[in-house]
Amino acid sequence: MGIAVRVSRRLFLGALLGSVAGQALANAPLTSLRPLPRATDFHKRTARPADTVIAEAKLTGKVGFVVADARTGEVLEARNPLLGQPPASVTKAITALYALDRLGPDFRYHTRLIADGTLRNGRLTGNLALVGSGDPTLDTDALGEMAQQLKASGLREVTGKFLVCGGGFASIRSIDPDQADHVGYNPAISGLNLNYNRVHFEWKRQAGDYTLTLDARARKFAPQVTVAKMRVVDRAAPVYTYAEQGGTDHWTVARGALGKAGSRWLPVRQPELYTAEVFQTLARSHGIALGRGAVVDTPPEGAVLVDHASAPLKEILRGMLKYSTNLTAEVVGLTASATDGSGTRSLRASAEAMNDWVHQELGARRAGFVDHSGLGGASRIAASDMVRALVRVHGNGLLEGILKEISMRDAKGKVIPDHPIRVRAKTGTLNFASALAGYMAGPDGRPLAFAIFAADVPRRNKIRKSDGDIPEGTAAWTARARRMHLQLIERWGTAYGS
Fold first, then answer.
1. pLDDT at residue 337 greater than cutoff 90
2. Disulfide: which of 125, 191, 405, 478 matches 132 by Cβ 3.0-4.6 Å?
3. Which residues 6+ apart lie within 8 Å of 414 measured at CB?
4. Cα-Cα-Cα-Cα dihedral sign, residues 255, 256, 262, 263
5. 3-class secondary structure, 126
6. What is the per-residue pLDDT across 406-432, written as a single tens digit (0 to 9) for each?
7. Which residues contact 52 (CB under 8 A, 6 or more apart)?
8. Residues in contact with 476: Cβ distance below 8 Å, sequence separation at least 6, in sequence order
């Protein structure tokens, strides 16, 4: 029996033996659901009907939802429960479960400096290699600490090359090729991922021209980089263009789009060279001169001079769910898929491996993901399958403990302090697609599992790259969808949790 199977039984199957949740949702008649009869009282009669809430949202497209008792799996209310919809970043909740099951909550990534040669009297006769394993949280400050530790190891001089290696981790140019080139949430993926594979672009207008900087900033360090370059050009559109030339990211930006000053994060497409250049700069500040990084596929064997360990996986996933970082989701998903011994692979192949796991372990047999972050719009899941998964893992503490708390808000969007309904869930947003799924508890504390998926797929399919970051109509559509989410939760808290 493989490790993955043993972990799976511990985290999921064991949790089911003492509950009836699996029976309630395993073969629930979700093709024609009606709210189950419940005793009526004042609270339930005052809850606004779901149809009214949805109609008032005036969303184009379709809405599907399911809400169930999280302990028993009893379906309390549903609408279009079998309709497959884009889950957007709700996918990350599934990815978190997949990674926790395959890797375990205490798993850590390691980034190492390896001496490929002989180190004597501070002189390394041979090569120095910076070797990653995919750590999605590696930042410039961590590299600064590694440079300091390298000096503390006694190394002062390297006679050979400076090698950089992803440790066998697959290199992927972007998460979703259909996204615009310049969006920072769609970077490359590698075994060496620095600052979420983003570079900070800043501009200031001075004396009629612009001063531009591209740097790898973190809290303590912000070294400028040359692996990415920017030019201001006179044109109306597009705002940005991108081209890769000789291992360098070449960007142009339209002058008229800049204004007086500003900044944004741009994606990095050469992550190994980006990481190498930043470490080279930081090492030089400690008196260690390194040559330009040379990318190699296989890490050398040798003495480990510095070993930087990431935080435990559970904490990485907590941050991923809070900030919805796409790169983190893709890396942990790829790492989880590689536990079968096949190594990391394409995102689509890795997503297929996760789909198999979801079908078998979570009982969500209609779910179909094309990546681990939800950025790809072709992913689909029905509300019934999402709730089935949430019910199946309820009570083991894995997902509930790391989901973000969602604040209830009034009609103007203002947070309502001390609201009696408590929600821990994952949001998801794509253009003309909005999702929310997780757990909630009303005033009586009864735990409910829910999933809401709203999408206008035909309208979404008409979007082109040239339509920009926020195509016309998406902001208003998304705002109405989010208000609808909270109004449905308010209804369920009143009708089933009072």
1. yes
2. 191
3. none
4. negative
5. strand
6. 999 988 889 999 999 999 999 999 999
7. none
8. none
